[in-house]
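Hi W.,

Here's what went into the run:
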Amino acid sequence: MNKLLLSVAAVTFSFTAQASDLTVLNTGSKSGSAAALTTALSNDFGKTINVDFQNPGKHCVAVNSNLATISTPVLFPWFNDLEGPGRDGDGCATVSISKDEVIGYTGSPLFVCAMDDKDFLKTSGRVSHSTPAHAYARLVTGVNASFGTTHTSIDYNGSGDARAALLSGETDYFVGTGKHAKRLMKKGAVCSYNSGPDGLITLDPTNSDLQLEFTTVLVLKNADSVEKINISNKLKDFYGDASSAFGTLTAGGKDISYSWGSSTFTLYEDSVVKMQK
Amino acid sequence: MIDFQPVILGCFLGVISGLLPGVGNFLLLLLATPFLLGFDPVSLIVCYIALVSISQYIGSVPAVLYGVPGEASSFPAVLESKRLSTSDQVSKAISGAAFGSFIGGLSVAVCCYFLLDYVELIKYFFSTKLFVVIVCFALIIVCLVSGKNVLFNFLLVGFGLLLGLVGYNNFNNTDFLTFGNSYLYGGLPFMLVSIFLYALPQLYQNFDAKKSTFVNEAEDLSFYVPNIISSCFNSVLGFLGGLFPGLTTILSSYLAYFLSKAITDDPVKHIVSSETANNSGAFSQMLPLLLFGIPLLSSEAYLLTLLELKGIDVLDMSFSTIFVNISYSFILINFIGLILAWPLAKQVSFIYSFNFKTIFTCLGVLLLFVCAYIGYENNSLIFYLLIMLGLLPLTYIFRNVNTMPLVFAFLLHDTLFESIVRLTKLL
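Here's what came out:
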């Protein structure tokens, strides 16, 4: 009953505004992996400092409106699949990030899954994937070019819908990140190929489109050096703490592996270039 | 066997969601997050089911009694409430909607229990072709049954789709009517459009209506029993509608309503049909999440996130185990819903029982406040206020119009356009 009363109190007092020490900004959709990441971070940081969690639900709005007006320390994830097309003038937003503002980095290759034993490199079919279409389609185009297949790329509004398309038989293959590939495998899918350094690229090293990673950097803007050290250290603590939301989400690096420090900026920049035309 | 805390919290949130226009399930989940994180995975799911189910039960009460749309799937009930001319009709609509919801919710759950081995077959509903066909069918029907002037209804649909296009579309990397304003990249908020172009005109149209005289009569049940077959049909319809991403209970409710309108002219039956279907859809919308880890609504995606934050992948949990675990709670939730939405209907919606015009005026002001508050929460207060100002003239223009085709089309635009583009690639 106490929990219930607390819940009611929380709903009531959530309406009370507080001055924040850190803004955590979700630069992705309201319900995707960026939302999960930023929700975890705002929960963890919120236990010790005042956190203002901003969740506009569209990266265009988050970057062009929210981020542009925040002058206090703000922590947010940013992605090479949005930055690459953005720099090409195809997207609605780019984020200017300096090396010193990057405090964390993670990358994930794409996986190719099918519900049966069809070989992606031999049997052509429809390939479902999420948006931005440009990024996913690059891998499909790369496979077509290297292996003579004629796959058709079909984009869906989110990886969940793309998975559903494979399950229903609307498409023959699914291309997506490891998290979604794992879920499909639990439903009987076979995920034979990936776009990591030990994946498709080894079959045709001349085609750079076969190696593709979706990368995320954790960016801290408007922070002085002391704030940056404090927040970075806390972030690493959460990562190693199995009881924290961030530690649970990443499974301490087993599910999502992070690298730390400004040195990862180069990795991010390289991955952005690979996402450009 | 039953953990009462998530049931009670979910029911409490569901009552708020069902009673107050603009306060949706997603917002309430966000507000209750710190305490939802304290629940174990099954309790979390139970709490969510309670929230969704009870909001469907409760949504029909202010809709029927006072013409106030608590949540979007109650829009048909709001429209039909104006045609309830006697206290007998109101009583039948209330009891019928509550019993219909009860039967709708429980019957699909019982069917799932007996068909556990086959329930995964719902994956075949994840079809772009099927979705486009059903949505186009629904749009045509809404134009045919929403008033005498069919051409005008089609124009409203067109206008709704046009409003929906405003913003930046990730699907084809284009923006439409944003005028370079980055806030508009997110499109016109659905909540503002539904409140200003549907809820406020409905409040205006009901402003001078006589307060409903509602009497809880035991014999009301006798009206419902002969309609059990129709109720089963609406349950099936609602079940299917609940499986469509982004629409779920709204499509369930509208499909049943439109078909009912095509069959009969009885406003009570229209209300019962749509309310039966939306509770059935409230259950089926959970199945893709629990079976395949596929959320159909943003609130479900958020539930998935909360589970992930607890280190749980919903696919690691056996569906049959979850189902058995939640089934007792689900039965209890439906009994609570039945009691709240029928014998306690007056008490639940007591805030609407004072001076009608005063309440409606207060409600209008409250709606404006809710809009502004959500704008503030999204750090977009000025943007929300400007959009509200921009929509006000349309509210005035549409004050005597049935704008359901417009709002329905606005709600559908995103998934409809994407699906049509995708269909051209699939064919």
